Amino acid sequence: MKRLHALGSGVAAAALAVAGLGASTALGAGQASGATAAPNALSNQWYAAAPYLMPTDNNPPDATAIMDATGLKAFQLAFILAPNGGGCSPTWGGTSAVSSDTAVAGVISAIRAKGGDVSVSIGGYGGTKLGQACSDAASTAAAYQQVISKYQLKAIDFDLEEPEYENTAAVAHEIGAAKILQQNNPGLFVSVTTAGTAAGTGWFGQQMLNEAKSQGFTPNNFSIMPFDGGFNGAASQTAALTAFNGLLKSTFGWDTATAYAHEGFSGMNGRSDSGEYFYQADFQTVLDYATSHGMGRFTFWSLNRDRQCSPPNNGTTSGTCSSVAQGNWDFAKYSVKFAGATPPSTPPPTTPPTSPPGGGSCTVAAWTASAVYVGGNEVSHSGHKWKAKWWTTNEEPGTTGEWGVWQDEGTC
Length: 412
Hints:
Blueprint lengths: L10 H9 L3 H4 L17 H5 L3 E2 L9 H8 L3 E8 L9 E2 L3 E2 L5 H11 L3 E7 L6 H4 L3 H15 L3 E5 L8 H17 L4 E7 L7 H13 L5 E5 L8 H19 L3 H6 L1 E6 L1 E2 L5 E2 L1 H13 L4 E5 L30 H7 L33 E2 L4 E4 L2 E5 L3 E2 L12 E6 L1
Parallel strand pairs: 1-2, 2-5, 5-6, 6-7, 7-8, 8-9, 9-12
Antiparallel strand pairs: 2-3, 3-4, 10-11, 13-16, 14-15, 15-17
Helix pairs in contact: 1-5, 7-8, 8-9, 9-10, 10-12, 12-13
């Protein structure tokens, strides 16, 4: 699962590229100790819809450009690991200490400046996990608390995969740490992601569920990754999700609806590591299943891969493209739909219209409910000029709305 996360290099430069920031901006005042705080936390539905993004490897795309093109507001940044040289302290990818990071902080600040936010994922397929390196649940939690405090996080993901989830002590440390973080950070959205099989999850995945039950820990979500295990399209994935629902019910004593509310899908867009193919139509089918069953999470690996290879299908699996025919960010739009928003069908305009209908003293166009606006676009409405803080459509200036997207620039 997620075997491609170790590709690439150039941590600081790559991360700055994601945010579209120069070094002076990313390393400037307010960035040394952590990312700029989001003005308001997003809804849990957005954290549950956040696709994975590697901000330091695999040719990271510009996160803010994805926001403009799709309406996406949340990103699942990956991965926090123990240091490659050993120790119980958090790093990005095993190499870049969280304590001294400014590059990823710059990425997070750029996302938050456009009204979005991030969750951070720990673990993944490769490297040494903190649950393996730390001596107990308390020290593991203390390491993760550094990440939460540094970046002022409202969400965190425990991606428990090989070989860690085969280590019962390490899994106990991770689940125990998750419980401690949940208690010490009220409102923190906690997801746990693990391998998927035709039976829902395998023996080690079941042992992880048993560990959670024994510790009295209930996260917001348990997600499976139905790929790299003999899957073939959406039908095999929805069958696995149905089976996993049964495992959640039998483990925790939940009814069907409660189990689905705690269940999530974490897919792989395009060609998987083992040569399976998942197309846009497969994502739509799984999305329909997720929404019709009241599932709690819909995400995928990864935004780094959410663009077309050249040629579109070269018969290999890449960390930087999908190996299927697609437009940029096609798969991200399914996460946006899961969050309850309607992504734009075409890229939004980069400049506001200049000819206001109906005249008046405002020098910018009148706001219309059907138009799509991006950060920096200006409109006139009710005698005032308004500037969009980020991507929006059908949110009337002067009303609170769900996100408070419009900034009042005064009368005109």
